[in-house]
Write a structure and sequence with these properties.
Keywords: Electron transport, Flavoprotein, FMN, Transport. This protein has 149 residues and is an alpha/beta fold. The protein has 4 helices and 6 strands, in the order E-H-E-E-H-E-H-E-E-H. It has a single domain, classed as Flavodoxin domain (Rossmann fold). The chain binds flavin mononucleotide.
Length: 149
Amino acid sequence: MNALIVYASMTGNTEEACDVMMAALEDLGVTCEMESSLNIFGEDFLDVDICVLGTYTYGAELPEEIIDLYEDLDSLDLSQKVFVTLGSGDHAYEAFCQSVDDCYQQFIKAGAHPAAPPIKIELDCKQEDISTIEVAAASAVEWVQSHSA
Ligand SMILES: Cc1cc2nc3c(=O)[nH]c(=O)nc-3n(C[C@H](O)[C@H](O)[C@H](O)COP(=O)(O)O)c2cc1C
């Protein structure tokens, strides 16, 4: 079983959350690759069982680093895939972690199955965020196990 973990992170909080996700998946025996969104095309998700996309939020628009990837998903059929979206934000802003929600909806449109609701983290990862990520990782693995031939 394998996973691709893609992240866009300006100050490191989302990247840290993705590191936590990678560790959780690896503990469950999943082979993981983690990459900046700038090095990935949407098609790369076709090669894996579990798709993870982490993004920060700066305002209502998606971060520029994930727009191409986001648009790639428009033309993909990810109906055999399970996914998680996660990211860091700040409740001081109006649209808390909106980009995490936007990416979640984009995976849904591509037909992918959510392992968990969008994971929204207030700034840096706390213990409860780590637990949420671990639960999502376990749920993704269970989905793949129950859908493999
Ligand atoms: C200019 C600016 C705009 C921001 N806008 C939002 C926002 O609309 N919603 C939100 O939840 N957080 C917002 N934030 C907070 C960041 O998402 C937060 O600092 C987050 O931890 C950054 O993640 P990163 O460390 O992965 O880059 C904003 C931060 C800055 C500096």
